[in-house]
Prior knowledge:
The complex is a heterotrimer.
Chain A: E1 4-10, E2 13-19, H1 25-33, E3 51-54, E4 57-60, E5 73-75, H2 88-95, H3 105-118, H4 124-130, H5 141-159
Parallel strand pairs in A: 1-5
Antiparallel strand pairs in A: 1-2, 3-4, 3-5
Helix pairs in contact in A: 2-5
Chain B: H1 31-36, E1 51-57, E2 63-69, H2 71-74, E3 79-83, E4 113-114, E5 120-126, H3 129-138, E6 140-145, H4 152-155, E7 181-185, H5 188-194, E8 197-205, E9 217-222, E10 228-232, H6 237-247, E11 255-258, H7 274-285, E12 289-292, H8 295-300, E13 308-316, E14 322-332, H9 340-350, E15 360-367, H10 383-400, H11 404-411, H12 430-440, H13 447-451, E16 469-471, E17 496-498
Parallel strand pairs in B: 1-12, 10-11, 14-15
Antiparallel strand pairs in B: 1-5, 2-4, 2-6, 3-5, 7-15, 8-13, 9-10, 9-12, 13-14, 16-17
Chain C: E1 3-7, H1 10-16, E2 21-23, H2 30-35, E3 43-47, E4 54-57, E5 60-64, H3 69-74, H4 82-86, H5 91-96, H6 99-102, H7 111-118, E6 122-125, E7 130-132, H8 133-136, E8 147-152, E9 160-165, E10 176-181, E11 188-192, E12 199-200, H9 202-207, H10 214-223, H11 238-255
Helix pairs in contact in C: 10-11
Amino acid sequence: xxxxxxTFTLNDAEAAVFVDPGAPLIDVLRKDVxxxxxxxxxxxxxxxxxxxxxxxxxxxxxxxxxEGVEGKKIDTTAGLAGGPNLHALQDAFIRGFAAQCGFCTxxxxxxxxxxxxxxxxxxxxxxxxxxxxxxxxxxxYEPIVDAILTAAARLQGRTA
Amino acid sequence: xxxxEFRKDLFADERDDTLKExxxxxxxxxxxxxxxxxxxxxxxxxxxxxxxxxxxxSPHHHAEIRSIDTSAAERMxxxxxxxxxxxxxxxxxxxxxxxxxGRDDEPLCAQTKVRYLGETVAWVIAxxxxxxxxxxxxxxxxxxxxxxxxxxxxxxxxGAPVVNEIYPNNSFDYHAKYDHQKLRFGDVNAAFAxxxxxxxxxxxxxxxxxxxxxxxxxIAAPETNDRYVCHTNTQALFFSLGxxxxxxxxxxxxxxxxxxxxxxxxxxxxxxxxxPTAVLGAVLTGRPVKFAWDRYEEMQVGAPRGGERWRLKDxxxxxxxxxxxxxxxxxxxxxYMRLSPYAIIKGTGHLPGPYTIPNVASNxxxxxxxxxxxxxxxxxxxTAVDFAIECQMDRVAEAVGMNPVxxxxxNAYRDGDMKAHRRKAKNTALIECCQVAASKANWAISANxxxxxxxxxxxxxxxxxxxxxxxxxxxxxxxxxxxxVAETSPSKSSTGRVPAGTHTEAIAGxxxxxxxxxxxxxxxxxxxxxxxxxxxxxxxxxxxxxAPPMVAPSVYxxxxxxxxxxxxxxxxxxxxxxxVxxxxxxEPASPEAPAPYKPDQPxxxxxxxxxxSPFTSxxxxx
Amino acid sequence: MLxxxxxxxISEAAGALGDRSRYIAGGTLVxxxxxxxxxxxxxxxxxxxxxRSISSDAAGLRxxxxxxxxxxxxxxxxxxxxxxxxxxxxxxxxxxxxxxxNLFAPNPYGxxxxxxLALDAQVVMANGQSQSLESFLPGRDQVRGLVAAVIVPRxxxxxxxxxxxxxxxxxxxxxxxxxxxxxxxxPRVVFGNxxxxxxxxxxxxxxxxxxxxxxxxxxxxxLCTEGLQPADDALATAWYRSEVAPVHLKRLLQNxxxx
Lengths: 160, 622, 259
């Protein structure tokens, strides 16, 4: 099978891989690069568990053709923490009990990061809208919304 | 942030408030892994040379398999193996055989016919998932479509297509005797005759898919020492291990199962299908094999909480007291029995809900249809009937012109009341729940209702004793299909009485394997008859696994009076004799009685008897 | 076996399309088909230079076929379409899904196209030819060539309304969607998910031809399912859709979609 070489930036590091024709980005990240943080939940854009940032915007890695990310900047939950220090979102998720089984969590975090990067001071409605494409089946939406708002406030406090 | 409110004023003396953890905020021990993405789900274990396995699935609800042509698929690029039913060493199982319940009725891969849309007919194992999918599309299966039945009541009517030949009446055989689970407590027909109102209604609950975000899946790989490792997201690791050992006819010591991390389950990951399939793939190819459902499969072939239909009939007095409640229930088990027959027994123990009603009768049917098999989901066996019961309570309130919360408080069970399954209620809290809910919702209730307590008034007079009960023997296995039973509801005419105060007795499952597994009456949770000897002790070890429930709350045939002076019960065969099989349907009137189940091949390693895993056997000790 | 072909321009890509090929834009439809093993194509055709521009000229508002729902939401000229774009998917889907792709989205997707049909949009192909969306849709599965842009005529403020009916809040897949353009003398009422493709409700349009007073609304609602062919799916039966379509149309006409 003819593979195609692609290069992109993953969490600020360069990645170069040969990808199968038609492979979705999630398979390349998980199998070829070894970044297991995007999760495969539906393969059809319904659940949001595979959400990653491409050039700063939330995208679904299961519906992204890997060959299309040539030269782009990709961020996943694996790069969220700065060294040993957790990101404010991660910290707020922990303290706010905003995860149960954890399978939707990495996608939720990336959707939330995309929101906070674009809108540092979101309303509750903004947060609900921002994670409206991410499903949680352990019924954790309220703690998740609370945690994102908590993280936003903390980030604002630090930078303001 | 939390909106939990602890009502420590309630039942304060029943609780120790000096606990260090319970009731205190805490941090989940696994949450650091979740927020960093390091929690290892089954699919996060990477294997070099991993192969991908996909199933060929039936497009029909019910069809005979005429032929399967895999030759084109085998020649497709990347394909390592195409497997069919012939490749499964022991292709028949029932999930609860591991606790000795039910007959083997379900193949891992359909061989002669398919019984639901999406049933597995073959598998393809290929280098990539896409290659496996392409090859699946190239497998040619010729079907002869059969008439199908999708409705529970149509399924048990005479003339319905036989879905699963193991249960030729399209219903589970309860206690080797009836086509439904019976509950008889008091005399509902006499009570209906005295009631001021009789309120009847039907309730229908649809199947509900658990829909975890992570679909069911497993990766199996050959290990050293002729073992296989299996990473799985099962909710029931040892169930899955035992099932795999049985289906693949493999000593369970050769299976190394690793689980414990599931991306949601909610009951949808107990059916142990992906694990034996992945291990089979690893056995056939000698390579690591992943078998996972995609979202479509999770929704279509992943077992849901089954649909249920409930018909309720209440006898109610003008003052709001419910004096009789009758249930006719139908569980849609789908094409195979997994957990539904057991859920019915559990559900029957729950009737008539959290209320004290002196006369209760129930017939519940576990129906086989050409639908996706049903399984566990969050309180299954209880949830749907509770929905029916609470809707019915509102109808009762409307009929007698009462506040619906007050009707509930009036009929609520209290500590010490006798429940229909002949155990006393304890730790009851419905009254307090109603009071708090009414107050939170600003729903006015009377001072009298507000003054009630679960702790007082329970067990007084007739509330605390088992009534004289009317019994019947309607609905023996096979009679309905022959058109000899017209009704599905509990019988209108009793043929026997069980004296007041009669407890139930245990029905033994298969005989114990070792003396230390002997059932201990003190341990099984419910009282047995005074003259009850330990069951099963005298049963020959070779008894076949016609499996009545293990510790069934067997409320259908209360035979042993507690007062030693009472006369012996009438016309009820002692249930303890049931396991000695053949099933006691040998009355001349029942010539169609099914022959006792016999496995068509023995197990040679690890598993000593049909339906027995070396891990779970006999009655578990506590 | 799958292959991916990359071209510089949309014209080159249009020339390369043929049997067993599929053009990929945002990927939300094509990648799903790839993942689920769609056997109807094995060539994926893509383009490096995607037209995501949104511009205004004499003919109206031109939306490049590669513009995403997010691009629509970022355009002040297209403010009247913001409520439609916002109801498509979650933010990630909106960053990916394109206007051109939406024209081909099968039920239960394609809500944006419902709005475009009510607005009497024109479809511009890569070879420069253009046709009305209404004449384009019936043949969309056999179309030759690639869509380059969509042109939306300018509208009077307040003359366009849209609602999407879904069972899950805040976001769910469409049970049906309704778009109404109340251009004087030429009102358009379009239903999504009530036929194999977005479909005008000729009965409702007739009733509203002379304005949307109370009687006209009642009449429009009673006639609105005329000629539509709703189907059963996992969300609702055809019967249910036919029963509730008048209710949702009435809510839209009277209260802008609120119950």
